[in-house]
């Protein structure tokens, strides 16, 4: 048998062996129920007493912020290669790494999950290094969910997106976008209950209230601002 033929057969056998081992690994993981674990494939770092979160490069980085007892940050193995984060006191800072900024990399989905007992403020800031960057789409979104008390302040720079889901808050004060550019978006699902809301929508930014229950609302809108109301939010405005 020719050496080349032997090498080809050996390569095929090695590939089949590797695929078989991979399939067994996937099957074992499935039988263990790993797919049901929302933190599967993520590394956890405990951080106590977090209260405020600053997210830079927010147009490129998605972050989920949830209320919970086990405080800290979960980062997927893939996102770990792309981001940098630090904390000082009760403030957590999340950003892309220098390499990821240079390559304009993106972190999407539930790749970064922050768990805190309390949350008082979230600040977002977009990253634009060139004029061409400003024409690219924003893929980052900050999701805030499950908070059951307190007052929340949101300060959103241009081209940022925040989604509020299943929160019950005493008050929320949101500055959406900047006066020059705007292009930010705040969305609230119908599962939110807010006693008092103060929205300041700057530039060509928008808020989308998809039926949240808000007892008292105040709007400060620019000429280019967009407000979309439906469900209970619209009914409260009409009555």
Polypeptide structure, described:
This protein is an alpha/beta fold and 239 residues long. The protein has 2 domains: 36 residues; 197 residues, Pectate Lyase C-like. Helix content is 19%, strand content 40%. A hairpin with a 2-residue loop joins strand 5 and strand 6. The longest helix has 30 residues.
Topology:
Blueprint: H1 3-32, E1 42-46, E2 52-55, E3 63-67, E4 72-76, H2 77-80, E5 83-88, E6 91-96, H3 98-102, E7 112-116, E8 121-124, E9 142-145, E10 151-156, E11 161-165, E12 168-176, E13 185-188, E14 193-201, E15 206-210, E16 213-221, E17 226-230, H4 232-238
Parallel strand pairs: 2-6, 2-8, 3-7, 3-9, 8-10, 9-11, 10-12, 11-13, 12-14, 13-15, 14-16, 15-17
Antiparallel strand pairs: 1-4, 4-7, 5-6
| Protein structure class | alpha/beta
The biggest beta sheet is recorded as: 9 strands, mixed
> What CATH first level of the largest domain would be assigned?
Mainly Beta
* Overall pLDDT confidence: 85
- Give the oligomer, counting copies of the same chain as homo and different chains as hetero: single chain
Number of domains: 2
Distance between the termini: 88 Å
Q: What gross morphology would you assign? A: globular
Q: What are the secondary-structure elements, in order, as H or E?
A: HEEEEHEEHEEEEEEEEEEEH
The total count of strands amounts to 17
Strand content: 35-45%
Keyword list:
alpha/beta, 239 residues, 2 domains, 4 helices, Pectate Lyase C-like, 9-stranded mixed sheet, globular, 19% helix, 8-stranded mixed sheet
């Amino acid at each position: 048998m020719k050496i080349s033929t032997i090498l080809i057969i050996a390569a095929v056998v090695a590939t089949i062996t590797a695929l078989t081992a991979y399939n067994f690994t996937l099957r074992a993981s499935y039988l263990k129920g790993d797919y049901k674990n929302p933190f599967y494939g993520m590394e956890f770092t405990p951080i106590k007493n977090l209260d405020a979160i600053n997210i830079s490069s927010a147009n490129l980085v998605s972050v989920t912020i949830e209320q919970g007892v086990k405080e800290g940050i979960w980062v997927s193995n893939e996102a770990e290669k792309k981001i940098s984060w630090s904390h000082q006191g009760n403030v957590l800072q999340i950003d892309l790494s220098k390499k990821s900024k240079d390559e304009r990399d993106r972190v999407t989905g539930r790749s970064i999950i922050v768990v805190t007992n309390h949350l008082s403020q979230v600040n977002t800031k977009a990253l634009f290094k060139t004029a061409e960057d400003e024409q690219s789409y924003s893929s980052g979104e900050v999701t805030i969910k499950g908070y059951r008390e307190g007052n929340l302040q949101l300060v959103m720079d241009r081209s940022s997106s925040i989604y509020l889901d299943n929160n019950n808050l005493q008050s929320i004060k949101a500055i959406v976008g900047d006066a020059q550019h705007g292009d930010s978006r705040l969305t609230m699902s119908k599962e939110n209950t807010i006693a008092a809301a103060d929205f300041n929508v700057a530039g060509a930014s928008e808020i989308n209230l998809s039926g949240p229950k808000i007892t008292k609302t105040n709007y400060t809108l620019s000429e280019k601002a967009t407000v979309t109301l439906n469900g209970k939010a619209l009914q409260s405005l009409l009555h």
